[in-house]
UniProtKB/TrEMBL annotation:
It comes from Xylaria flabelliformis. This is P-loop containing nucleoside triphosphate hydrolase protein. It comes from the Eukaryota. The chain crosses the membrane at residues 263-283. Pfam families: Sulfotransfer_4. PANTHER family: P-LOOP CONTAINING NUCLEOSIDE TRIPHOSPHATE HYDROLASE PROTEIN (PTHR36978:SF4), P-LOOP CONTAINING NUCLEOTIDE TRIPHOSPHATE HYDROLASE (PTHR36978).
Amino acid sequence: MSSKNDSDGTIPRLTEYPSGLKLIVCGLPRTGTTSLKLALEQLGFPNVYHMSTFVENTEDSELWAHVIRAKISGNDVPREVWDSLLGDYQVVVDAPGCYFATELSRAYPNAKVVILNRDPEEWYISFANTVQELIKRREYLEVLETILRPCLPTQASAIIRIGNLLSKSSIGLGSYGKGECLEFFHRYYADCRANIPVERYMDFKVQDGWTPLCEHLDLPVPRLQTVNGWIHAPFPQANDTESFHSWVARIQYSILRQTWRNMMLCGFVLLGTIVLFRQVMWLTKFGLYTSHD
């Protein structure tokens, strides 16, 4: 790993980075995962696997299904499988990867770990008004996805199938009441702390800012030049409730547009098939068509 020293006032950038995960973030959705993703990118980590990465690159869905089913069955996932899934990334943060934080920490024993915290009550309010709404909608769409799969974009089908596989297996958060959500929250963090050596992780909230994070990662704090001299760069603050809903709306609009186009195409194919079949039957009736088997 190499970076510019902050003595010259520049934001550090990593110019070389070995392959394999270097940082695992144990943090449920809505704990500041997007803000931390942006901070880590600013620190120079070139590839961060985040929930948005999965949504935009759902070709990995079968591998995710494999590791989810392995966890359901209590089977270990070999390092080779994780490398196939995450080999191009240096950091994993947010769902679906966060639900495998302890497994990833064993598969990548040299990776550092950040346990990303948030006040449980604040977290639940944010989660209930954003991600949980999608979970409920996604579970409702499961039957419809099965029926419309030939017309659905692969992105939509993968999001529904992998998301429901996580939530219905209790590996991921589901459409729970407040009590169950908070129980899941506390159990998740207790499991991370119980199964990851204390010397490998740090507890962190995005409100803590750059200093403890950079100390843990052995990187200089990013700085910006102002008219009054060099100052610490502001820590990213992103993905509030309004921004989350705007992002979801853009994804849904794209999916609906593709679905409608596919349904129109399927309709034309079906109509053409019916017309061709009727034409063959008419020609056969009058002896104008014979099969050449």
